[in-house]
Amino acid sequence: MAARLQQVQAKACQATKFISKHGSAYYKQLLEQNKQYVKDPPTIETCNELSKQLFYTRLASIEGRTESFWRELDYIKNMWKNRQELRVEDAGIAALFGIECFAWFCAGEIIGRGFTFTGYYP
């Protein structure tokens, strides 16, 4: 266990040295590549204004997303009414979607338990 701790410490030390040596250049390069997204002047007031714009824009988009959800739900209801005409491809896509949702649920549960697979260990 002590040897493993020393390995982790050595790796962390190497990463720190690399970041201290190359971090500034990477930061400058990143800002230069994405300067079209920087709002001038870069102040706290500008950040607060952009934050409010994002919040209220997302709030305004709820209505459109709700309408889209109900259209999708109506489409599914219509497919269920005409399930005799359902093709194998459509059923396969629906099954894969259900399996994917279940897998994400299981992954979320595992992450929520602190990456333990069985029980709770305090």
Radius of gyration: 25 Å
Mean pLDDT comes to: 88
Assembly context of the chains: single chain
Q: Which structural class should the secondary elements be placed in?
A: mainly alpha
**Sheet having the most strands:** none
Tell me what portion of residues adopts beta-strand conformation: under 5%
Distance between the ends = 21 Å
Work out the helix count. Answer: 4
Number of strands: 0
Order of helices and strands: HHHH
User: What shape does the CA trace take?
Assistant: flat
Q: Which residues sit in consecutive blocks of at least 5 with pLDDT less than 50? A: none
Portion in helices: over 70%
Q: How would you summarize the topology of this molecule?
A:
Elements: H1 2-33, H2 44-60, H3 62-81, H4 88-112
Question: What does this protein structure show overall?
Answer:
It contains four helices and no strands. The protein is mainly alpha-helical and 122 residues long. Among the domains are: 40-86; 87-122. It is flat. The mean pLDDT is 88.
